[in-house]
Amino acid sequence: MAEYKSDIEIARAAKKKPIMEIGQKLGIPSEHLLPYGHDKAKISAEFIKEQRSKPDGRLILVTAINPTPAGEGKTTTTVGLGDGLNRIGKKAITCIREASLGPNFGVKGGAAGGGYAQVVPMEDMNLHFTGDFHAITTAHNLLSALIDNHIYWGNELNIDTRRVVWRRVMDMNDRALRSIVASLGGVANGYPREAGFDITVASEVMAILCLANDLEDLKKRLGDIIVAYRRDKSPVYARDLKADGAMAVLLKDAMQPNLVQTLENNPAFVHGGPFANIAHGCNSVVATTTALKLADYVVTEAGFGADLGAEKFFDIKCRKAGLKPAAAVIVATVRAMKMNGGVKKEDLGQENVEAVKKGCANLGRHIENVKQFGVPAVVAINHFVSDTDAEIQAMKDFVAGQGAEAILCKHWAKGSEGIEELARKIVEIAEGGSSQFSPLYPDEMPLFEKITTIVQRIYRGSEAIADKSVRDQLHQWEAAGYGNLPVCMAKTQYSFSTDPNLRGAPTGHVVPVREVRLSAGAGFIVAICGEIMTMPGLPKVPSSEKIFLNGEGQIEGLF
């Protein structure tokens, strides 16, 4: 068997072009690119504003089946398809999210694609990049500090310290900080109260950065954040603490999309990074809408499986930004089908056509779900060397029976050459104009009914259940004028249910909603389902144990 290089070895050998050259390809003058070294740059707000009157290209969403330990390769396929479209003569830009340090040092190890379908500089993207996440963390925690400071200096706004809803954040997995008591140590340190940390990617500030149209919109949304309630349950906003101005200043540069390149020197925008299991899971509206002005095709991804990322992309991002996707790609692998069919990870190398057929139920559900939004879907079979012809054919036959087409893609090993067929198919679908996109539910539907609609139509559960306190909270928000907001479901990514071990295509399960949070600035209600945590923990053996600097000062272990 041929010896394959690791992702990081491939990335290290990349022949990168100066980032100004990549910008020139898109018609971005050098004075509108703020360089961070030689291989990454931010695009100025002025240039973005100047593009607004231009016509839009076509938007392609890449989504996937529920993730398995076998790996699916959604980002790899997103990057590969962008390169593939450029290869066949279309001007295409790839738009992906920035990587969170938490999972990089926890279980994941990186999020820049893989093989010969990667975005570079890979090490920078998976570490501090251009500092956007640090800016988001700092802006969020400035607001946290201002709340406790306001209470300390007399609490003029009459904040009920039992009803402070704004937590703190950090970009790391740290279960010890989920629930804490703050301000211990006597009078000088303020009034003790319960508090806690979420991971930065779950911050409402992250969501706001990803959904705001420009700096002015950003500042308004930051001011709309509800941080606490008074004893009469009236809300206290970030603007009441005069926090929005300083927060916007901290986020000024972070609002500008980052331009980098693929291994084939095609442009990629990498901006924003909300998780799709606990947040809305899409890259920024600014990056996507700007890319649509500069290219014929924009390929973007939404996190995790289509039950989470794609649903939120359609129901939150597209609804709020007025986007109309032309087509969707659902990424799947033979290996993942076998796992869904009951095969253990260590046995995936052996041919098992029956397990593939059994596991295809999960893929079938995602095809049906994407079609519910009126968006035509095609399946990308991300190829692994262990796949057999019979297993691949079984997947193709299943997908054909679902009224869609599955195309074998070898971009991991061959780059754009290995994904040409999918690129041509996407052009055929997009230029055929068959997309009839519409969100799953109307704005005016009551909030709990929106949750129930997603549970029944996307997860195929029997119902959503919630305590009276949760339902009462939703009714209060409806009475306060927030009933027209979409809902952002926080749920395990591994299953259609709230049980991460329930693979395949379960039906009839109950989805418990244990908590709801109002993100008034971002413009959605978060419904926290099952056991999902907004601050992850590290596994028994974290990825960080394998990350180090080698003798030449190069980073090893990011894959």
From TrEMBL:
According to its UniProt record, in which pathway does this protein act? One-carbon metabolism; tetrahydrofolate interconversion
Q: Which domain of life is it from?
A: Bacteria
Q: Known EC number(s)?
A: 6.3.4.3
SUPFAM superfamilies in the record: P-loop containing nucleoside triphosphate hydrolases
Chain residues that bind ATP: T68, P69, A70, G71, E72, G73, K74, T75
What keywords were assigned to this record?
ATP-binding, Ligase, Nucleotide-binding, One-carbon metabolism
GO BP annotations, alphabetical order: tetrahydrofolate interconversion
One term of GO molecular function: formate-tetrahydrofolate ligase activity
Catalysed reaction(s)?
A: (6S)-5,6,7,8-tetrahydrofolate + formate + ATP = (6R)-10-formyltetrahydrofolate + ADP + phosphate
Among its keywords, does the record have DNA-binding? no
By sequence similarity, the record places it as follows: Belongs to the formate--tetrahydrofolate ligase family.
What's this protein's name?
Formate--tetrahydrofolate ligase
Q: Which organism is it from?
A: Tianweitania sediminis
